[in-house]
Design goal:
- By secondary structure, the chain is an alpha/beta fold.
- The chain is built from ten helices and 17 strands.
- It has a seven-stranded mixed sheet with strand order 12-11-7-10-9-8-17. A six-stranded parallel sheet has the order 3-2-1-4-5-6, with helices on both faces.
- α1 links the parallel β1 and β2.
- The chain is globular.
Length: about 325
């Protein structure tokens, strides 16, 4: 293992820009390359972060300038680059959801099978100190058996306007909690039953809300609420909470990931948890996730979420889609 792990970031959109900023100063690593089909964007980001720029993933891999790659592309196009990265013997951190179709997920699983390296999925809640503390409490002996889990994740209508057509409510918001349910329950989700709403005066041709009931292999049950129908006038862009009820206790995770600022421009919310910027550095859970992955590559500890965790969450999402189509309970593929 080299003294400093050489990192590359593939995909330089909203998340990719933040990954590049983190990778440029994460301990034990150095950012050596960035890659995006938009050559100008790649050049600008490379100049900002002190890395080499590429516009094609094959050129990046053939250049042998990286030991590990963060793939932050849209879920509909990221599987082939992820498989190529792992096939080149490099470590992989893959944004969630790891795939958007069952066929893509099968391709990902087959392509990663037997490849060396530390492969992780970017399920951010697993690097969130609140969720880690809650999971430790739930898994403690005195918490008893899980009676039920309730998760809520709500966003504003402007979010739906911004991303609908490129992704879905289930993939954009839902995969966070689908993974968290299995993490809390310490058991895979085996079946789902879901309903959705799309009122006549809803302005978009996508679901406004999804409600899903999940049953885990160990008998734990969960209710997951997802919506991006909150009024745009509210300052906070995200409203999220989780409650886990056990026979010996209760754990609650409430909001608190934003800071409310009021002034001449009205009320605005600033992120203080996931990727806050302080002194030009991106901190928060996104940094924790990258640091855990880099440490795991160096042989110190484990990743926050394995690629298998990401695949499991994707399979639950596919089952929810099936349930929404059929109106029936759906089994989660294994």
């Amino acid at each position: 293992m080299p003294e400093r792990i050489r990192l590359a970031v593939l995909g330089l959109g909203f998340m990719g820009q933040r990954y590049a900023t983190i990778a440029a100063d994460v301990a034990g690593a150095e950012l050596t390359a960035v890659c995006d089909a938009d050559e100008q964007l790649a050049q600008q980001t490379a100049q900002r972060c002190g890395a080499a720029a590429y516009s094609d993933v094959r050129q990046l891999l053939d250049a042998d300038v990286a030991d590990a790659v963060i793939v932050a592309l849209p879920e509909s196009v990221q599987v082939a680059p992820a498989v190529a990265t792992a096939g080149a013997g490099l470590h992989l951190l893959l944004e969630k959801p790891v795939a958007s179709t069952a066929a893509d997920l099968d391709q990902l699983a087959a392509g990663l099978a037997g490849t060396p390296g530390v492969h992780a999925s970017a399920h951010l809640l697993r690097a969130d100190p609140r969720y880690a503390a809650a999971t430790d409490a739930v898994h403690a002996d005195d918490f008893g058996s899980i009676v039920h889990i309730t998760t809520v994740r709500r966003s504003r209508l402007q979010t739906a306007h911004r991303v609908a057509g490129r992704t879905s409510l289930l993939y954009y918001l839902g995969v966070h909690d689908l993974d968290a349910v299995a993490w809390f329950a310490d058991s895979p989700v085996r079946s789902v039953h879901a309903v959705s709403t799309r009122p006549a005066d809803w302005p978009l041709d996508v679901d406004a809300t999804i409600l899903a009931l999940l049953e885990c292999a160990n008998g734990a049950v969960a209710q997951v609420e997802l919506t991006w129908a909150l009024a745009d006038g509210r300052p906070h862009g995200l409203q999220a909470s989780t409650v886990v009820v056990g026979t010996g206790g209760t754990v609650e995770i409430r909001g608190g990931d934003e800071v409310l600022v009021a002034g001449g421009r009205g009320q605005q919310a600033a992120d203080a948890l996931h990727w806050p910027e302080v002194g030009g550095r991106v901190l928060g859970t996104l940094r924790y996730q990258v640091e855990q992955w880099v440490a795991a590559i160096a042989g110190r500890g484990r990743v926050a979420a394995t690629i298998e965790d990401g695949m499991a969450a994707a399979r639950v999402a596919f089952a929810i889609e099936e349930s929404l189509r059929t109106g029936q309970r759906a089994q989660v593929a294994r």
